[in-house]
Amino acid sequence: MWLLSVLVPLVRLYLCGVKVLLYQMFNRSLTLPVLPKQNGRVAIVTGGTRGMGFETARHLASLGMHVVIAGNEKEEGTAAVKRIHEEGGKGKAEFMFLDLTSLKSVRQFVQTFKARGLPLHVLVNNAGTMLVSETQTQDGFEFHFELNYLGHFLLTNLLLDVLKNSGKHGCCSRVVTVSSATHYGGVMDMDDLNSKRCYTSLGAYSQSKLALVLFTYYLQEQLTASGFPVTANAVDPGMVDTALYDNLWSLTQTLKKPVAKLLFRVCF
């Protein structure tokens, strides 16, 4: 029984991965839509120092937005901001410290942001981790669950009033949450959210992504029912060759490289 409880979710996850790779194999072309200028609007991008988060922050800044890059690596954040400014975009970028594995840090980040009196038009919940060995955060939660889900859940709810006040009908504020197709293989065990009974890193990751999707659906339902000018969406970027795969075993890393070169999407 224990073996089945481990193997079945893993098989589901790998099948999801195969489906995504097949889709990307036959749908290679990605055309970035032409977006209108966003001068004077403010965005927060978590995990915006590298990978997809950085590309998102850079593009939003190029549209004229004031982008707050939220992350837990100050040196990387400073370098990301410098790079964006050197590209000569019309927007502004800055770094603010945020550790999503600490609910205290999330609250401090929101308190600091709100004290500045800035509006907030776009919140991109992008930061995440994958394939981490069994670890608990200082708050006592499983690492994937807090970093990928709980931190973003708290961040979004604490910033919701600013998002509501900044949006208007016809020009809504947005919450965009980066999830993954692996959520299809995720299982929410409400009696064991910390995955203590049977831990696998892929299982913990897929559970955190499923939690993000469920939260996004519920949030959108509540926003629509209340008539607030805010939209909530979850997005699956597909398989992208980023640092998210750095925790793979050495042999798996070696095997992954040729596959990633051929089939994974690339952050430039």
Could you explain the architecture of this structure?
This protein has 268 residues and is of the alpha/beta class. It has a single domain, classed as NAD(P)-binding Rossmann-like Domain (Rossmann fold). Helix content is 47%, strand content 14%. It has seven helices and eight strands; from the N terminus they run H-E-H-E-H-E-H-E-H-E-H-E-E-H-E. The longest helix has 26 residues, at 201-226. Residues 251-256 have low confidence and may be disordered.
Short structural description:
With 268 residues, the protein is an alpha/beta fold. It has a single domain, classed as Rossmann fold (3-Layer(aba) Sandwich).
Strand and helix map with partners:
Layout: H1 2-26, E1 42-46, H2 51-62, E2 66-71, H3 74-86, E3 92-97, H4 103-115, E4 122-125, H5 143-166, E5 173-178, H6 201-226, E6 230-235, E7 240-241, H7 250-263, E8 265-266
Parallel strand pairs: 1-2, 1-4, 2-3, 4-5, 5-6, 7-8
Q: How many structural units, i.e. domains?
A: 1
CATH evolutionary superfamily: NAD(P)-binding Rossmann-like Domain
Class computed from helices, strands and strand pairing: alpha/beta
The strand order across the widest sheet is 3-2-1-4-5-6
Mean pLDDT rating: 83
Question: First CA to last CA: what distance?
Answer: 45 Å
Q: Secondary-structure element order, as H and E?
A: HEHEHEHEHEHEEHE
Per CATH, what is the topology?
A: Rossmann fold
Given the structure, what is the number of helices? 7
Name the overall outline: globular
What is the radius of gyration computed over CA atoms, rounded to a whole number of angstroms? Answer: 19 Å
* Poorly predicted residue ranges: 251-256
Largest sheet: 6 strands, parallel
Please indicate the percent range of residues in DSSP E strands (runs of 2 or more): 5-15%
